[in-house]
Amino acid sequence: GRMTVTVLRAKKLPEIKRKNHKPPDAFAVLTYETLQFETEIVKRSRKPIWGQEFSFPITDIRSSFNVSLFDNGLAGDHELIGSVSVGVNEVLRNSALGQQPWYKIFRTNEYGRLRPNGEVQLRLQYQANSRTKHAHQLPTVAAPRTIRSTMRTMRQMRRQVAAMQDILPKA
To answer: What pLDDT sits at residue 139?
Structure first.
């Protein structure tokens, strides 16, 4: 299928130390496997608005994509503000589709601890491959979370079927 991610805006971004505590010149980078997309740079804003849309094919719904926010450095020395990794599976399962969730972005501080450093708002759309008509309804099934629970469900169904065959009069 295809995932379309719109990087809408960010908020609560920190002021940048190396720029005398001015707001960042922020841009977002979206990466998925080998693909990389960048938004425009929004100058001096702690709550930049981009509204830029990126679309890419999903090869595996167990994969995830990453959104990182940077402060633009003129010499190409961009400073990471924070990033978030979003599982494709989570998006489908939580039907975040069509919603516009805010994600906290994190970066490691000088002590190696992850610290929230702002939030980014994404709009997520997923289009299933059009081979089968109802494919887009499949991934949102919330029932079996793991293969093991799927197998269990199938065993239970088989037992029910077997039990019913015992009850049914033999033709």
So the answer is: 43
